[in-house]
Amino acid sequence: MKITILGSGTCVPSLQRSSCSVLIEIDKTALLFDSGAGTMRRLLEAGLTIDEISYIFYSHLHPDHSGEFVPFLFATKYPASYRRRKPFTIVAARGFSDFYEKLKAAYGHWIELAPGMMSITELDNKGPDHLDGGVFDVDSLPMEHTESSLAYRITDRHGQSVVYSGDTDVSANLVKLAMDADVLICECALPDELKVPGHLTPSLAGEIATEAGVSKLVLTHFYPECDAVDVAEQCRKTYQGPLVLAEDLLEIGLLAF
Q1: How buried is residue 20: exposed, middle or buried, by Cβ count under 10 Å (0-12/13-18/19+)?
Q2: Is the pTM of this model over 0.90?
Q3: At 231, which CATH number?
């Protein structure tokens, strides 16, 4: 299993941080988690094309997490000589199909793919759910952000596990989902002193990681205000394990047993 942070930022334009996106590669299967602005360019910089993505998981539908869904579809369809031939799956909370239908009402046939090219799997946004991906399993739980907010736990055939929080406030569900995970990729939007509803801070993310007993904590989704403080120092108030501050194109490897 290999993790690449494609976008470590937010909705705020930045030359250093693209909007939210994480790539997880398991064997030869590429999983994309969220696709905010800049995702497809970062994917190319990471050495992959959109044709190699087998699954796109959406944590929720705010533009900084889903903004390149339409460009992804458009780039998948055109031009005819270059377009994708390999089917892929979208995984998101219940309601995503309706979201897609509304996008088609705006963009029409420009984002309608050939039959069988894209499938949509909707997971429960009120309780736990599970998806069997063959070489991996995915478990999900609702988060404290929007009605469609999900966090995902990805487990490979060796039992290694990565949790992607998406956006969330303090959540018992996130602790439950991340219990004993090898890696927790956790949102950390703002410094402790600037806490806002629906988002975590360094010390709160640290509390969750400590309570869950994760082996490694990766903080991401940084607003520019985080650049003015020592994020690691704030996190160390509540978490003493291995800590990584995400940057675009940062690679995190997990060795197979």
Answers
A1: buried
A2: yes
A3: 3.60.15.10
Task: State phi, psi for 16 to the nearest 5 degrees.
Answer: -95, -35
- Domain hosting 177: range is 2-253
pLDDT in tens, 3-36: 999 999 999 999 999 999 999 999 889 999 999 9
- Non-local (6+) Cβ contacts of 16 within 8 A are 9, 247, 248
Give the pLDDT score at 257. 36
- Bond from prior residue into 79 cis (ω within 30 degrees of 0): yes
Dihedral over alpha carbons 59, 61, 66, 70 (to 10 degrees):
130
Task: Count up the domains in the chain and report the number.
Answer: 1
Which helix H or strand E contains 253, and what residues bound it? strand 250-253
Strands of the sheet containing 118-123, edge to edge, are: 118-123, 88-93, 53-57, 29-33, 21-26, 2-7, 250-253
Q: CA-CA distance, 72 to 86, in Å (whole number)?
A: 14
6 φ/ψ angles, rounded to the nearest 5 degrees? -85, -40
Q: Does 84 have pLDDT greater than 80?
A: no
190-234 pLDDT, tens digit each: 999 999 999 999 999 999 999 999 999 999 999 999 999 999 999
Strand partners, 123: 93
Reference 164, options 42, 65, 67, 78; nearest CA is 65
Hey, how many other C-beta atoms are within 10 angstroms of the C-beta on 228? Answer: 9
Tell which residue, 89, 59, 29, 1, has the closest CA to residue 220: 59
Per-residue pLDDT at 256 exceeds 50: no
Determine the pLDDT at residue 255.
Answer: 55
Give the end-to-end CA distance of the chain in Å, rounded to a whole number. 11
